[in-house]
Design goal:
heterotrimer; A mainly alpha (417); B alpha+beta (171); C alpha+beta (310); A: 417 residues; 70% helix; globular; C: 310 residues; alpha+beta; Alpha-Beta Plaits; 4-stranded mixed beta sheet; two-stranded parallel sheet; 10 helices; 16% strand
């Protein structure tokens, strides 16, 4: 218990001190967070009327970000499986960073759901027995379960690992391996259930596709590790965390394969929709070329596709990906590309045209933009603080007083200290 | 996987079934036509004082607004109106019916429509689906003299609807 | 099956018991917002918590319902100065409601749309209509080619008209979608919403293949003089902001034996309503003697709404 108290104090100490770049970064995020909080408060006080959502397009940028973020959590499972199941030393080093990214992504997903509710204060209606969770009928109820579960699993594992290492002890496998492996299985759900959330709606032809869940998985395996490559590069440069090149290359291989698979699945979807030209292809036509003169999102989606293609090419061609800056640019392109494709590029066309053939377009309002940016800032803020604690513990510099500063558990085969 | 099937089957069972024995069917009254005919009773108002004149002719002075354009055979008043008692309508067999039973005149040609009307498939029934429904006669909607379909002025689309404002904006 | 919950005096007493609070959820939200610079009205006290902690409709005892109805009535009195009566007519044994609509007769005049809004106290600004009338091209059943913003004289020579509203599906995707069971199918087939239980996620709206659900993005506005005071808890009572609402076949009317408001307003007799379980009912006669078709039948929703030509 005393150790726990010390751990909390040490963590607070760690996040309070940093370079001026660190403070500037936090201040930058803080401004966005404040703006987001103000916008969210305004929305809460005035209702979702401040958004550009309509009955025709009832979901917008919030749910779009939600869809993207559940995929981002894939970063976790893709480093956890090689690290813990196949005992890949390079990825083991960085697995904790991946899991922390999953925690931040889950928190952001939940926030995006909350701000999308007409009555966020009534969230207690979702709590079983206190309220009513329509499980297993409602896919949204499944989503609530898998997201909270995944958040809990990852938060538990990283807390346990960090706390053990802080006390200079080798983490006891009995305490974390079962949960960690559960997390691996759970991760499939965290990507599949949101896809089913859409695909299960028989009245929305654009989503009602068996390939949607595989597309979610493939795009998640692009965006998560791509973002992780960027994060690892920053952490290596800014926090002197030794990230092996092997680790980056392994991640690069993963995203390379996933990016091609993702493009392939996307092309399959487009072909099946467009070639026969049934009335069910109207949404696809809307997003790709516009429908009856409505083409607000056409440039948007083509930007996304271009970025995804660019990223895939870089990830696969050695002369290109061996240049670190180009690799980083490709990673950024992949993340943004998936954000477009799995975000508004997926959500909005599902509603256009409506099931009665009406066309009402959507783009986020200023308030929606601020709230979304604020939630992203909260996620980035949270992730930064978590890194600020996790990295020194991993490096051995942050320890319970009197405990050896040797690094713990760097290699699962060798064990440590 | 089991849970998925549970999800799929659970929702099919979600709705409780009503007890299948229905309450007694509604009865239907036919709304009388005569109170809504402004010039009724024809006999008391005018025709009792006028000699019946079955001759086909151009009407001047009265009923000039009546344009007779009902098919090719109904070309004169006395085809449907009882010439010596203009408060009554006349069936083909020579029997007389009240204006309240005007639908019986229509039924002579429009048998299929009439059957639909008796079943409530065609025509207006308001009031109650359970107790006593009020059914309008054919003549409440169709002008027997000139039964071509009339146009209505559509009420406006809801222009203050959220999507509508934006829709126009994007157009 | 008219439900008379209690005599008037009793209800008055309950209103007293609630006190002069009568603060709506909106005020409660504003109070929360006050901490962060939004202006708060000072009248809110105990009642918002009763709104907040109100349980699901199906978990309420008759006594609790009485108190809640009284509280809601008092809130309307406070906000609009209008005395309304909130009732809760129950489904009738042996009755399953269904609708049939004659596409050959409908002229697309939108009388039903506005009668519905008036009957159901739906928001006038922004306008919120349960019924959508599609102007369809002759020679096509494809709703995607329809026009919903037509004006002027109807019907035109090139078009026919198809009003669409909630189909009260037997396998309703909206009911399945709702994460908190705030919407469900009653034994008489009517899909209802507990407006005080809905959290406003709009998944049901995404799930509906008939564009039949409407969300109150803004505070619904109805002029006090236009409020229909005969209100059902599960149907046409004034909705709070941030919840879903929909057509309920006017259950506050139809469960008392009346016809829905849209049917009463129809000048062409295109609308047929009745008990599907009664072989003599008009809807059953339509199904048995006419050829009916079901909109988006491929969606597998098994609606209780039939279109026919005749």
């Amino acid at each position: 218990m005393r150790d726990g108290y010390a751990f909390v104090r040490a963590s607070l100490g760690a996040v309070m001190h940093g370079s001026s770049a660190y403070y500037r970064w936090l201040a930058f995020l803080g401004v966005w967070m404040l703006l987001g909080c103000a916008a969210a408060t305004y929305q809460f006080a005035n209702g979702l009327g401040v958004s550009n959502l309509t009955d025709q397009v009832p979901w917008g940028v919030y749910i779009a970000n939600f869809s993207f973020l559940v995929g981002l959590a894939a970063a976790s499972v893709l480093v956890v499986i090689p690290a813990y199941v196949y005992r890949d030393a390079a990825l083991y080093d960085i697995s904790l960073l991946g899991e922390l990214l999953a925690v931040a992504a889950m928190v952001m997903s939940l926030l995006f759901i909350v701000v999308d509710l007409g009555h966020p204060e009534l969230f207690w209606h979702l709590v079983p027995s206190l309220g009513i969770l329509n499980f297993p009928q409602s896919m949204l109820a499944w989503d609530v379960v898998v997201i909270n579960g995944y958040l809990f699993i990852n938060a538990y594992v990283v807390s346990y690992l960090l706390f053990s290492k802080y006390r200079g002890r080798v983490p006891d496998k009995r305490w974390y391996m079962p949960v960690l492996l559960l997390g691996v299985v759970w991760a499939v759900g965290i990507h599949t259930i949101p896809a089913f959330l859409y695909a299960s709606l028989g009245g929305r032809p654009f989503w009602h596709s068996a390939v949607l869940a595989p597309r979610f998985l493939a795009s998640a395996f692009v965006s998560g590790p791509s973002l992780l490559i960027i994060v690892l590069t920053v952490v290596r440069d800014q926090m002197h965390f030794p990230v092996r090149d092997e680790a980056l290359q392994r991640l690069r291989q993963i995203v390379g394969v996933a990016a091609v698979l993702n493009l392939f699945l996307t092309v399959s979807e487009i072909f099946v929709e467009i070639y026969p030209g049934t009335s069910h292809s109207a949404s696809m036509r809307y997003i790709l070329v516009g429908l009856h003169g409505h083409n607000l999102l056409v440039p948007y989606i083509w930007t996304g596709i271009a970025l995804s293609v660019f990223a895939a090419v870089v990830f696969l061609a050695r002369p290109l990906y061996s240049r670190p800056k180009l690799l980083l640019a490709a990673c950024a392109g992949a993340v943004i590309g998936v954000w477009i494709e799995k975000g508004m590029g997926l959500v909005i066309p599902g509603f256009i045209p409506t099931s009665l053939g009406e066309i009402v377009e959507y783009s986020p309002s200023f308030i929606e933009f601020c709230v979304s940016a604020g939630i992203w800032a909260i996620g980035a803020f949270l992730y930064t603080l978590m890194l600020k604690v996790a990295v020194p513990i991993e490096l051995g510099t942050l320890r319970l007083p009197g405990v050896s500063h040797e690094r713990v558990g760097l290699h699962p085969l060798r064990g440590a200290a | 996987m089991l849970l998925v099937f549970a999800a799929a089957s659970g929702c099919r069972r979600a709705e409780p079934r009503a007890r299948r024995v229905p309450p007694p069917s509604a009865t239907v009254t036919i709304v009388p036509r005569t109170p809504s005919i402004a010039t009724y009773s024809c006999m008391e108002r005018c025709h009792a004082r006028l000699a019946p004149n079955p001759t086909r002719r151009e009407l001047v002075g009265f009923h000039t607004d009546k344009r007779l354009a009902h098919g090719t055979t109904l070309t004169w008043c006395t085809f449907c109106h009882q010439v010596d008692n203009l408060d009554r309508l006349r069936l083909i067999d020579g029997s007389q019916v009240s204006f309240d039973d005007g639908h019986r005149v229509c039924s002579q040609c429009h048998a299929e429509r009439y059957r639909d009307w008796t079943r409530g498939i065609h025509g207006v029934t308001t009031g109650s689906w359970r107790d006593v429904g009020e059914r309008r006669s054919c003549l409440a909607c169709h002008n027997p003299h000139d039964p071509h379909r009339t146009q209505f002025n559509a009420l406006p689309p809801p222009s203050r609807e959220r999507g509508r404002e934006q829709e126009q904006h994007h157009d | 099956m008219t439900e008379d919950h209690q005599n008037h005096d009793e209800r008055e007493a309950v209103v007293e018991g609630v006190g002069k609070a009568q603060a709506s959820r909106r005020r409660f939200l504003q109070v929360l917002g006050a901490a962060t610079a939004t202006a708060a009205t000072s009248q809110a006290d105990a009642a918002p918590w009763e709104d907040f902690f109100q349980q699901h409709y199906k978990r309420l005892t008759d006594d609790e319902k009485r108190q809640i109805f009284a509280r809601l009535e008092a809130q309307v009195q406070d906000k609009y100065g209008v005395a309304v009566r909130i009732s809760d007519p129950k489904p009738i044994d042996g009755v399953e409601f269904a609708y049939a609509l004659n596409l050959q007769a409908c002229v697309g005049c939108r009388r039903c749309e506005y009668a519905c809004a008036q009957e159901n106290n739906t928001s006038r600004s922004p306008e919120l209509h349960y019924i959508r009338v599609l102007q369809m091209d002759k020679g096509s059943l494809d709703v995607e080619r329809s026009n919903t913003t037509y004006e002027g004289a109807v019907p035109t020579a090139e078009h026919y008209y198809q009003p669409v509203q909630c189909h009260q599906c037997r396998d309703a995707p909206c009911v399945r979608a709702c994460p908190v069971n705030a919407t469900w199918a009653e034994p008489d087939g009517i899909v209802v919403v507990d407006y005080n239980w809905c959290i406003g996620c709009r998944y049901c709206e995404a799930a509906c293949p008939y564009f039949a659900r409407r969300f109150n993005y803004e505070e619904p506005t109805v002029r006090p003089s236009e409020i229909n005071p005969d209100q059902g808890y599960l149907s046409n009572r004034l909705r709070p902001r941030g919840v879903m609402e929909k057509c309920t076949y006017c259950l506050h009317r139809t469960r008392k034996g009346l016809m829905p408001a849209c049917l009463e307003a129809c000048p062409t007799g295109s609308r047929k309503f009745g008990n599907l379980l009664d072989p003599n009912s008009e809807v059953r006669q339509v199904i048995e003697t006419k050829r009916v078709y079901i909109l988006h039948e491929d969606a597998g929703t098994n609606p209780r709404f039939y279109y026919y030509f005749g």
